[in-house]
Amino acid sequence: MTEKTSRTDLAELDRPALEAWLEARGLERFRARQIFRWMYRHGVTDLHAMTDLSRERRAALADEVVIGTPAIVEREKSSDGTEKLLLELADGRRIESVFIPDTPSMTFCISTQVGCAMACAFCLTGKMGLVRNLTAGEIVGQVRVLVDAVNMRGKRFNIVLMGMGEPLHNYDETMKALRILADEDGLAISPRRVTLSTVGLLPALERLANEPIMPNLAISLHAPDDATRGQLVPINKKYGVADIIAACKRFPLKRRNRITFEYVLLAGVNDSPEDARRLARLLAGVKSKVNLIPLNAAAGIAFERPADEAVDRFARIVAEHHLTVSVRKSRGRDIRAACGQLIVEGQRRSPAQQLATVAFGD
Ligand code: SAH
Hints:
Helix content is 35%, strand content 18%. The protein is of the alpha/beta class. Helix 2 packs across helix 3, helix 6 packs across helix 7 (171-182) and helix 11 (273-283) packs parallel to helix 12 (308-320).
C-alpha cells in the first residue's frame, strides 16, 4: 500500500466516525468538534494550522491523515454572474459545480456522480454515462471549495443537488454528505436549504421518506404520461409516472412544504396545451409546485426549445388549474453551465459506464 492510500481522509468522516477514529487513537471525542470547525467553518485543510491542538498532536495527526479537497482546474464566469468550476478529484476524474447568485438567493449547484447512468434524452451529462459515484467527502468538498472561491464564507446560501449525476443512484454517500453539511459545528447547512432533484428511483425515494435528515424534494417529471416520459427518461420503464406520483402523495412533508416537479419543455414533444392539462390533472391532490425549464439546447441534443409563447401558454394553463408554477430562467448558458449542460469531455469510459448504458438503454 502506498503511503497516501493508507492515510485516513478526514473529509470522508461524518462526526460520529471522526469521534470514533479519534477515540481509537486515544484522543478525546471533543476534538472532533474542533477539527470540524477548522475544516468547515474556517476552510482549513492543513492540520498544522489547527492551533487548538498541541503542536505535537498536530504533527502526529498530520502524518496520519489527509483532507481530500477537489482542485479547481478551470473557472468561467457568465455575463449573468453564474460561475462554473471544473474540479479535479484525487483520481484525476473531473466534475463541474456551479454558483448561481441572486435568484434571489445564492445557490450552489453540486454534483453527486461523475457522469450519470440515467441517460435522459435531452441531458448532456447523460451522454457521458456513469463514470463513478462521488464519495461524501467529494460531494461536500465541492461546497468547501466553492465557499471560498466565490467569496461566500459565513454567508447564507442554498444547495441544489442538480449538477452531474442522479443523487438517489448514489444514496448512501449523498445522505452522508447531507449529514456532514448539516453539522452544527461545520457548515451548519440545514436540510431545509438543500434540494435533492431526482428522476424518481422508487426504492430510494421510499427510503428517503424515512430519513431523519430530509432535504426538499424535486422530481424530474418532464411528461404526464408513460409513453412520452419513457422516451425522455429511460428509467421510467421501470418506475412509471403513476407509481412516482403515488410515492409523492405518501411522502412526509412538513406543513408548508411542497414537492417541486421539474418539467423540461421540448418543442413539439411535451409542450402542448393538452400536455399542460394532463400535467395539472396528474398533480391534483399532490402538494406540489411546477418548475418549467425551457430546454437548454446543445449540440448533440435532438430537441428544440419551445418559443416563449408556447412556454407562457403552458404555464398559464397549469396556473389556471390552481397549481403554483414558475419558469426557470436559465442561468449561465453562455458558459454551458445551465441545467443539463454539464459534461466533462474526454474521460475514459469505465466498465460501469458501459454497463449503465446497456442497463438503461432499452
Ligand atoms: N439527476 C437529477 C439531477 C440532475 S439534473 C435529476 O434528473 O433530477 C437537474 C435538472 O436539469 C433535471 O430536472 C434535469 O432533467 C434538467 N435538465 C437536464 N438537461 C437539461 C437541458 N438540456 N435543459 C434543461 N434542463 C435540463
